[in-house]
Design brief:
The complex is a heterodimer. By secondary structure, chain A is an alpha+beta fold. Chain A is 38% helix and 26% strand. Chain A folds into three domains: 151 residues, no CATH class; 176 residues, no CATH class; 119 residues. Chain A contains ten helices and 18 strands. In chain A, strands 5, 6, 7, 8, 9, 11, 15, 16 and 18 form a nine-stranded antiparallel β-sheet that branches. Chain A has a four-stranded antiparallel β-sheet with strand order 12-13-14-17. In chain A, strands 1-4-10 form a three-stranded antiparallel β-sheet, with no helix packed on it. Classes of the chains: A alpha+beta, B alpha/beta.
């Protein structure tokens, strides 16, 4: 017998000989998709183009999956008629040949196009290659390996499709079941938070272990029934990954804090001297929202004034989760639920402090100093801020307990994010920002905004703030701020490529003529866009306890009534 | 070369092979015969480790079939009517693919087999007729001069011309190799097999050398004296030996298949059983006739 590596290559060549048109087709879709993504970064994107791009991305993934399944089916494992069963080929070689095929001919084109895209977007070779390899690894573990395992359980494409349909049906039923017991909410507590990567990694680990075991059973033992059962069990455990408990996930995250101790000085205390919260324009006590299993009824939401201290300049304090517990004086629990996803941004250059109210899944609002009725006796110290913690309570319960003396406890899971600032010319700017990405600026078609477009290779931003600044005078336009926490230590995505994109518009002119900006069109040539990129420093917890409170004391004021009563 | 001991194979509740035991001597051409569903193909698939036995063992080349490694498979040629080959490869491409797997592959022999079987090297496997595919399967099984050649229903669906070509190809290369052939096409096996095993509903009915089998089976026609005391009704009686199958009478002629025929004492035994015998005609039987006689007897539960 010739050396094993030769045989692996020999089997792989046979598969290529049989599947080269398919390989070319899949690679062609991949190249076209990547080419279109690159083009869309540099041209005006129409909706039609966006739809085509989305279709191509989906097509590229589907073609990859079908190619993997087809190469496995060339030497199918189940069944008794396959020629390979009676040939003196090592089963290990056969498996490795299939893996080699997937690596070279499925992931090769993906790696190549992703790297090319990174290079064409101005990233260094190392960074482009790392980002591309990272996505390729992500796809390998999260898509190719499970497809490889799944295909090894079937004889042909018909069986695979039937299996996939049954699997999807199982998934839908599972989701329906979870929705039913979860009041149609997000599946799992870490969903749509910066900790979502822990859920994803858990599910990935299950997928990798499950798929590898199925492949081992199939290629070395050919126990298809056993392997199918195992796949079903692995699929179920995979779905259970959604339910990673919050406290476990946050404990993991705390251990991974990049700068432990950075949030040591931060405190949050209830400040009863603060006045009642005034709802921003557009919200009143009749406002009612429901999304992701969460309900928010402004008529039964109270806002507690919280004095946050220890915040450094240009930092963000994000409450990843705030859990509230209400008990009566004799210790009986009356309510346990989620408080608002509070986010506090400290920025002395512009608005000293602003915070968000609401719940992320249903959208939230940023409240600036102009919206707040800061109490007259509030004298903020260095790093201090007065913010309001929203606490939505079910209406029927609220009506029953609002006048009772209650003990209130809020348990915060917090993340402190610090920022780095960069500036780029307001017009025609083109800059590679280290550890962030390649950013460009240009005026938009309407002539009222400066468009900021950034492409990142292998990096994930969490929060970004940007504003226009006139360099000679230091005048600044209102800040734009966006936050989409993702504390993942790795960066990868299924689609569209290894790059992540960020786009924002910085206004300098109000087309209606009502507003006038400090930095207007005339000042643009001497202006720059200042970009603040926030990254997590520490994840930590804080507990806030109010020994006795009457909820009705902290009902919000309605904006219109408040204005009318002034 | 092959040793099977108390082999059982179940598919769900169906027992395809039951307590099967036999051995295939080295250098023999061993025919596994039986009707459709008798368990021939299942037995072969167990031997090739394509399916695992439920109970019992099967040894091939001295190795438990469940532990057959590429080393053993490199010495076994396998030809089956149910063999899925890569359809899109040409004959030449598939042979080229197989070559490196067999250290003993003889390219000259491969060419000569291709010529002899008249296989078009440039034609894709999916474009081959059933007969051509069987020949292709044989062409893939011979060039490495296997120690053991396993043929599973190789003649099924072949026209006589292709059968002849197939058999010629096989016999020319047979040499010292051991052949295990399963078939119900007994005419083809007749001149080839040195040993035979007969399976029925998963059970082994007998296993012996072809010469012993042919020697002990005779189709016997006995002409009785007309004035004898026996009439037809008396003749068809349970007193006949169990080794007589298909016993029937036409006029004063008694016919049966003797499964334990011995040349010397036939006249005496007959006289003792049926009285005055005028003539005894004992004809050797073709394998096909032996097979059909046994198959019918097995169905009727009349086997000795």
């Amino acid at each position: 017998m010739k050396p094993t590596t030769n045989m692996i290559w020999h089997i792989c060549k046979k598969d290529l000989k049989l599947l080269w048109p398919f390989v070319l087709g899949a690679a062609g879709i991949q190249v076209t998709s990547a080419g279109l993504c690159y083009a869309m970064d540099h041209i005006r994107v129409t909706e039609a183009l966006l739809n085509i791009s989305n279709l191509l991305q989906l097509g590229a993934l589907l073609a990859s999956a079908l190619l993997i399944a087809t190469v496995v089916h060339l030497d199918a494992i189940p069944g008794v008629r396959q020629d390979w069963l009676v040939r003196p080929l090592s089963r290990r070689d056969l498996l490795l040949a299939k893996v080699l095929f997937v690596l070279l001919l499925v992931h090769g084109p993906i790696l190549l196009t992703d790297t090319m895209e990174g290079l064409l977007n101005g990233f260094p070779v190392g960074q482009s290659l790392t980002a591309a390899a990272s996505r390729s690894l992500y796809l390998l573990l999260g898509l190719s390996l499970p497809v490889l395992a799944f295909a090894s359980l079937t004889r042909n494409m018909a069986e695979l499709v039937i299996g996939a349909v049954l699997g999807s049906l199982g998934f839908v039923l599972f989701k329906l079941f979870i929705n039913l017991i979860n009041n149609y909410g997000e599946i799992g507590p870490v969903m749509a938070t910066g900790l979502s990567w822990i859920r994803e990694s858990t599910m990935f680990a299950v997928a990798v272990v499950g798929s590898s075991t199925v492949l081992a059973i199939q290629y070395f033992r050919r126990k298809t029934i056993r392997a199918r059962w195992l796949m079903a069990v692995a699929g179920f455990v995979f779905l259970l990954g959604h339910t990673v408990p919050w406290h476990f996930a946050f404990a993991v995250e705390q251990r991974l804090s990049p700068n432990p101790g950075a949030g040591r000085a931060i405190t949050a205390i209830f400040d009863p001297s603060g006045s009642k919260f005034r709802l921003p324009e557009g919200l009143n006590h009749n406002s009612w929202f429901r999304a992701g299993g969460l309900t928010r009824d402004e008529g039964s939401t109270i806002y507690l004034p919280i004095r946050v201290a220890g915040l450094a300049e240009s930092t963000v304090l994000n409450a990843d989760r705030a859990e509230v517990l209400l008990t009566t004086s004799d210790g009986k629990m009356v309510y346990q639920g989620r408080a608002d996803d509070l986010l506090v941004r400290k920025d002395s250059n512009l608005e000293p402090v602003s915070f968000n109210i609401g719940l992320r899944p249903m959208g939230w609002r940023e409240i600036g100093p102009a919206d707040m009725a800061v109490p007259k006796n509030f004298v903020p110290g260095s790093g201090e801020a007065l913010v309001y913690q929203g606490l939505p309570i079910p209406r029927h319960l609220y009506e029953r307990i609002k006048d009772q003396p209650l003990r209130l406890e809020i348990n915060y899971s917090l993340t402190l994010l610090d920022s780095s600032s960069y500036s780029i010319p307001a017009l025609g700017g083109d800059m590679l920002i280290p550890k962030f990405g390649h950013c460009r600026t240009q005026m938009d078609d309407d002539g009222d905004d400066v468009q900021l477009r950034c492409i990142q290779a292998g990096g994930e931003s969490n929060c970004v703030a940007f504003f226009l600044e006139h360099a000679p005078s230091g005048r600044q336009n209102p800040i734009r701020f966006g936050c989409w926490p993702n504390y993942s230590p790795y960066s990868a995505q299924y689609t569209p490529d290894s790059l992540t994109r960020f786009e924002g518009a910085v206004p300098f002119r109000d087309l209606s003529g009502l507003a006038k900006y400090p930095v207007d069109a005339a000042k643009l040539p001497e202006s720059r866009v200042v970009l603040r990129i926030y990254q997590p420093q520490e994840h930590f917890t804080r507990r806030l306890v109010i020994p006795e409170i009457h909820l009705s004391d902290w009902e919000s004021l309605e904006h219109d009534r408040a204005v009318a009563s002034r | 070369m092959i040793r099977i001991n108390k082999l059982c194979k179940k598919f769900g509740h169906h027992e395809a092979v039951r307590d099967l035991s036999f051995s295939v001597p080295e250098g023999s051409a061993f025919a596994l015969i039986g009707a459709n569903g008798a368990g021939k193909t299942t037995t072969i698939k167990v031997l090739m480790n394509i399916v695992e036995p439920t109970r019992g063992t099967a040894e091939v080349l001295g190795v438990d079939s469940r532990k057959i490694s590429p080393r053993e498979l490199g010495q076994i040629g396998y030809v089956s009517e149910n063999q899925d080959m890569p359809e899109k490869l040409t004959v030449e491409e598939f042979l080229a693919y197989l070559r490196p797997f067999y250290p003993t592959w003889d390219t000259e022999l491969e060419k000569s087999i291709l010529n002899q079987l008249r296989l078009p090297p440039e034609r894709k496997i999916c474009e081959l007729s059933h007969g051509m595919r069987m020949k292709m399967s044989l062409a893939c099984a011979l060039p490495f001069r296997p120690k053991l050649l396993v043929l599973d229903e190789p003649f099924s669906g072949l026209d006589p011309l292709v059968r002849d070509e197939f058999m010629e190809g096989l016999l020319q290369q047979a040499g010292e190799m051991t052949i295990l052939i399963s078939s119900h096409e007994l005419g083809e096996i007749d001149g080839v097999a040195t040993h035979v095993a007969f399976l029925d509903e998963g059970r082994l009915l007998f296993e012996e050398s072809m010469s012993d089998l042919v020697a002990r089976f005779r189709e016997v026609h006995v002409t009785l004296e007309r004035n004898g005391t026996q009439n037809r009704n008396e003749l068809v009686a349970p007193a006949f030996p169990k080794c007589w199958l298909r016993v029937r009478t036409v006029g004063n002629v008694l016919s049966f298949v003797d499964t334990q025929f011995s040349e010397g004492d036939v006249g005496e035994r007959l006289r003792a059983l049926v009285g005055n015998v005028r003539t005894v005609d004992a004809q050797p039987m073709a394998l096909r006739s032996i097979f059909t006689t046994l198959a019918r007897a097995a169905r009727e539960g009349a086997l000795p």
